[in-house]
Amino acid sequence: INVAIFASGAGSNAQKLIDHFRKHSQIKIALIVCNKPGAGVLTIAQNEKIPSILIEKEQFFRGNAYVEELKQHNVDFIVLAGFLWKVPVQLIKAFPQRIINIHPALLPNYGGKGMYGNFVHEAVIAAKETESGISIHYVDELYDHGQLIFQASCTIEAGDTPDSLAQKIHALEHEHYPLIVEKVAGELQNRVK
Ligand SMILES: N[C@@H]1O[C@H](COP(=O)(O)O)[C@@H](O)[C@H]1O
């Protein structure tokens, strides 16, 4: 199973996924797709010698959504890891039940357009929530909306700030995302056999 990681930021989740699947016999991180010039994840791709493509808005939303490029890299499964653009229907149709995303909050709360990075943690803390967490879900036409696959939570202590909460959330993401990708992509492997 060839996996493409879509990311817009630093790429800490991408790095954990690359480390986890480095010696994996069935699942390979085959491509990094990024929409932000200079993003940290592009440096990770270079260091790891993994092909990467920098995508343009025009072609992504009004062109072929890079479906051809993904096919050229024999991509079977797409993992969003801090990718900030909504996935166009064309791409969802080309990869049915083969695109998953991780969101740094307990969906269905604190999801949707504009709800990313520290904006999420600020909103969670402002609402005086006592817990937060991560949500991994299949991607559909709406932001942070598709069928849930997995959630894990952490408590919010009195002194927590958006930054300290972000640290706790990243720890949960790095612990669980590689294992969930392995499980879901592994099931795909059995489906395509
Ligand atoms: N969607 C969110 O964006 C962040 C990306 O972090 P990184 O993987 O680029 O470090 C993660 O917290 C993820 O949940």
UniProtKB/TrEMBL annotation:
Keyword set, alphabetical order: Purine biosynthesis, Transferase
Q: Origin, by domain of life? A: Bacteria
Annotated site, Raises pKa of active site His, chain positions: 144
Keyword Plastid on entry = no
- Transferase among keywords: yes
Q: What is its EC number?
A: 2.1.2.2
Q: What reactions does this protein catalyze?
A: N(1)-(5-phospho-beta-D-ribosyl)glycinamide + (6R)-10-formyltetrahydrofolate = N(2)-formyl-N(1)-(5-phospho-beta-D-ribosyl)glycinamide + (6S)-5,6,7,8-tetrahydrofolate + H(+)
Q: Which family does it belong to?
A: Belongs to the GART family.
Query: What's this chain's function?
Result: Catalyzes the transfer of a formyl group from 10-formyltetrahydrofolate to 5-phospho-ribosyl-glycinamide (GAR), producing 5-phospho-ribosyl-N-formylglycinamide (FGAR) and tetrahydrofolate.
Protein's UniProt name? Phosphoribosylglycinamide formyltransferase
What are the top taxonomic ranks of the organism?
Bacteria, Pseudomonadati, Bacteroidota, Chitinophagia, Chitinophagales
| Gene name, Swiss-Prot/TrEMBL | purN
